[in-house]
Amino acid sequence: MKYFAQSLLKTIPVLFLITLIVFILVRVTGDPVSLMISETATDEERKALRESLGYNDPIYIQYFDYMGDLVKGDFGDSHRYETDALNLVIERLPATIELAIASMVIAIIMSVPLGILSAIKRNSFLDLFVTGGAVLGKAMPNFWLGIMLILFLAVNIEVFPVSGRGTFLHLVLPSIALGTGIAAEMTRLIRSSMLEILGQDFIRTARSKGLREAMVVNRHAFRNALIPVVTIMALQTSTLIGGTLITETVFAWPGIGQLLIQAVNLRDMAVVQAAVFIIAIFVILSNLTADLVYRLLDPRIKYD
Amino acid sequence: MKKKILWPILVVFVLLIAGCSNESGGESESEGSGDPEENSDSKRLVIANGTDIVSFDIHDHNNTSTEAVHVNMFNYLVRNDAEEGFVSDLAENWENIDENTWTFTLEEGVTFHNGEELTAEDVKYTLERVANDDTLLEYGSYQQIEEVEILNDYEFNIHTHESEPALLNRLSRLGSGILPKDYIESEGWDVFLEEPVGSGPYKLKEWRKDDQLVLEPFEDYFGEEPKWEEVVFRTIPEDSTRVSEVLTGGADIAVNIPPTDIERIEQEDGVSIVTSPSQRVMLFALRTQGDYPTADPKVREAIDLAIDKEAIVDSLLEGYGTPTRTRVTPGNVGANEDLYDTQVYDPEKAKELLAEAGYENGVNITLSAPNGRYLKDKESVELMQAMLEEVGITAELEMLEWSAFSTRYSDKDFEDVFFIAYGNSMFDASLALQRLTKEQAAGETDYDNPETEQLLQDAMSNMDPEERVEQYQKAQEIIAEDRPQIYLYQIDSIYGVNDRVDFTPKLSEMLYVDEITLK
Amino acid sequence: MENLTESMDAVPERKESLIKKMVYQLFKSKTGTIGLVIVIFVSLVAVFAPALAMHDPAETDAVNRLLPPFWLDGGSTEYLLGTDNLGRDVLSRIIYGSRVSLLVGISAVLLAGLIGIIFGLIAGYYGKTWDFIIMRTVDSFLAIPNILFMLIILAVLGPSLVTLILVLGGTTWVVYARMVRSETLSVKERDYVRSARAIGAKNFRIIVKYVLPNVISSFIVIATLNVASTIILEASLSFLGLGIQPPDVSWGLMLSDGREYIATSWWVATFPGLAITLTVLGVIFLGDWLRDVLDPKIKD
């Protein structure tokens, strides 16, 4: 518990750094005014808008204002929606989490059996197929996979709806598109971690005691192989959230990913800041959780 | 055994290719005929847009596709109809009583969605808001209004600062909806933006951002009874996904269909393509002064002559566009139709002109263009670059992502030539040509021709409609020869439409859902 | 793919035997061989692009737009893999695209590696405040998804070949910094390093002589695998409109642009897609093999 508390403490400077990074990213360069205003607007109209948004202040004043507001939990208003940026992001959070969890479930469903089987039946045809497939899954950008899935499973054979969020069926294609890359990564990992454990002494002992192979795999190998997998799953959170940027656009999924892309394109800085911050907290929390779970599963681990 | 590793991969490759080529075969009779039929009588209309509406602040969005949704919820005083000219909407009649004054009479008994009556007070509140608040994006198009003077509940005068021949055009476009004064003043803007109230045939049922916006009929609408039980505007940013939705019956109408998918939609049973000219004209803006090669009129002419606009339209837009030499296209006040649907293309003469200008061995220019903003922008520019190369003009391309482009644009920071598209929601030559007035052209094209300037300034406040049109037409002729901007082509709007509905697109791209009917 | 237990025994001690072992391992591992062959092949294509391409990759041909590959009806041997929407030769574009894709992939990884190694060494070797600052920065970078970072920076700076490399390198360095730091920490405690310090050797010398050689092998493995993910990342950025800008051409750009034609002219996007897949496959095979040979400790 002490370790966990320490980890939590460590996140405070991290969060501070994130706000600084984000501020530098969105404020120092780029001109939101030119994006907000029409192509045919005059110079005076631009000036007026710039003034009204407070972009004429020196940059450090803008930063202090921003940090001051941030401490109060105020990320400012979205200039597009003219409403609180943080609320906008939180509104979108469930859709993205839903997609992320479903993708993770799909990744687990695909990778756990395949990874274990290919490790047990090492060098068989199945193993080769799985490892080859895993590399392919990694090599296919997820926008591409998404478009293909729509063409085959929604247009050619109308099994699933094309896009949007709604029923359970709407969730299937986007989570496959997003989950496949992660499944590929996890399959490779489960396979190698299984292989390593299957070669270790205690498994040999179990085998030599005459335990059935299925029992050995189940009881001993799998449970031990699971430990690094749990960690990797959590570490994939960041990849997963990053992937939603693209998957949500392809499938018109109304989550944070789409919100962010549009906010970036329109220089809706308040929203960008709020979204990056929320995503970062989400990633940090899931990493902390993984850390904790890892320690619970494997009490041998010591920390420096 | 490890040799086997390659062949499962090969299998996947083959499947991938086989799957794709099968798709391209176009044997689609058996497919996709399920959904479109099943709900053919449904009074639920689904429209797939590429972007979500920006906001319900009608004065602060500057976005055609947002207005296309708003027009179903708010009413203008007058509507600008392509065929009939100005027709009544909220205003029963109107009259220009002197140079700076217009008088209007409202329909009686118009109510807002919350039951309150729409009166001259609301008109005053709405128009004066946008005419006075310079932080609003539409301020520039309404600031000509000085005051709205209320005569009684249903009658009012609009006073303009100077004589304003295009006032009706200004009042029948983006941001011209009338807002409920009492509702906004008592509840505040925040509430209005969440729960907007208008006077239109449909009211907001639900808005899930970047997902869908649902409208339901307003029973007490003062005009014809609304036809649809529910109207859904879906937001689908990815083109291919939007096409797939209309193919499978997931949407009745999909906007902005890429020209490449036209054939695919037309081959499918139950869906068709509907097109209309739009107000969007693609153009080059060129530096006419300074150390740029384009400062020489001969070079500008050579650029114009080098580009085969017809070929671009035919190849990239599959014919869905029209070459033009003016930005004021038919349907706009002041249009010069002699310059429309025509092009000057003569590569040989272009070479001669370059030689005359002293560039026998070719000339280098920088051509800046946005990438991914307009239909086929990148491809068009690449094609034009190749055409320019043919006559000896080496254009160095500077393709910019939109936000970068627009920053440079507003800083007036481009080199010789930039590529852009302009629309025109006012349907009037004044908006189309104002960027070429001396004041606004400064730093950009630096266009300065006293004759054009005089014509544009005179026309801007000329209350004699016929003479005003002549002035604008004359100005367009001069501009077409001076070439501070080289107009390329007007692009069409392309819609994929389910055969269960009848839809005639408008030049303005507005989506009046009650004009869309079940077959 | 490789027999793990065997390669674990093969931890090299001396350089001569390392090279021998590598060659031996290479031909023992079929996938490693395949990977190496693919990587060499793609690199050769990139180097000799002008000689190999039959057409100028930017040359448009309005008459021959969207021609299918030569083996299909309407195809022409003039354009072996068909033409795109502007009538450009798909094969020539793939050949030239290999240059940009590899250039971006490799330079971004080298840049990231350089930054990562420097910061990792500093954090690991000097510890304390340096370690704290660097590692918290690493943590904050890790908490923001890569692609999101790139989306923001590229949208602000505007994408170009150079910014793309800088951004890809400048955001992925943290992986190396982490790895190098932990390697450094363990090396630092070894007896020979301790004694070197005890006799007053300069820090810089210790780092170069003892620490650096120990981190290089892990670095090579991770870097190789990251070339693959960078190539894919570039494709994703192209999808967002922030990748390579024309007239430059990369596989990612071709794949992303070609998605519009996937239902009508599949070859426009499929072949660059295959090029990416094949290259990534080769690089991953090579990386897996390097890992088995050089550094069996790293799992991923």
From TrEMBL, chain A:
Domain ABC transmembrane type-1 intervals: 93-290
Listed transmembrane segments: 12-30, 99-120, 141-161, 167-184, 225-251, 271-294
PROSITE patterns: ABC_TM1 (PS50928)
Subcellular localization, as worded in the UniProt entry: Cell membrane
Top-level lineage group: Bacteria
Matching SUPFAM superfamilies: MetI-like (SSF161098)
Protein's membrane topology: Multi-pass membrane protein
GO terms (BP aspect): transmembrane transport
InterPro entries per the UniProt record, alphabetical: BPD_transp_1_N, MetI-like, MetI-like_sf
Gene Ontology cellular-component terms listed: plasma membrane
Keywords linked to the UniProt accession: Cell membrane, Membrane, Transmembrane, Transmembrane helix, Transport
Gene3D superfamilies to which the protein is assigned, alphabetical: MetI-like (1.10.3720.10)
Keyword Cell membrane listed: yes
Family to which the UniProt record says this protein belongs: Belongs to the binding-protein-dependent transport system permease family.
Protein's recorded name: Peptide/nickel transport system permease protein
Originating species: Lentibacillus halodurans
Lineage of source species: Bacteria, Bacillati, Bacillota, Bacilli, Bacillales
TrEMBL record, chain B:
One Pfam family this sequence matches: SBP_bac_5
GO cellular component, one term: ATP-binding cassette (ABC) transporter complex
GO terms of biological process kind: peptide transport
InterPro entries registered for this protein in UniProt: Peptide/Ni-bd, SBP_5, SBP_5_dom
Segments forming domain Solute-binding protein family: 86-441
GO molecular function: peptide transmembrane transporter activity
Keyword flag Signal: yes
Keywords: Signal, Transport
Signal sequence region: 1-23
SUPFAM superfamilies assigned: Periplasmic binding protein-like II
Gene3D superfamilies per the UniProt record, alphabetical: Dipeptide-binding Protein, Domain 1 (3.90.76.10), Dipeptide-binding Protein, Domain 3 (3.10.105.10), Periplasmic binding protein-like II (3.40.190.10)
CDD domains in UniProt: PBP2_NikA_DppA_OppA_like_2 (cd08498)
Family note: Belongs to the bacterial solute-binding protein 5 family.
Name of this chain's protein: Peptide/nickel transport system substrate-binding protein
From TrEMBL, chain C:
Superkingdom per UniProt: Bacteria
SUPFAM superfamilies with a match to the protein in the record: MetI-like (SSF161098)
Membrane-topology annotation of the record: Multi-pass membrane protein
Record-linked Gene3D superfamilies: MetI-like
Key words, A-Z: Cell membrane, Membrane, Transmembrane, Transmembrane helix, Transport
Membrane-spanning parts: 32-53, 102-127, 147-176, 211-244, 264-290
Any one annotated GO CC term: plasma membrane
A Pfam family the protein falls into: OppC_N
Predominant subcellular localization, coarse grouping: membrane
Location(s) in or outside the cell: Cell membrane
Keyword Protein transport: no
Family statement: Belongs to the binding-protein-dependent transport system permease family.
Protein name stated in the entry: Peptide/nickel transport system permease protein
Organism: Lentibacillus halodurans
Lineage of the organism: Bacteria, Bacillati, Bacillota, Bacilli, Bacillales
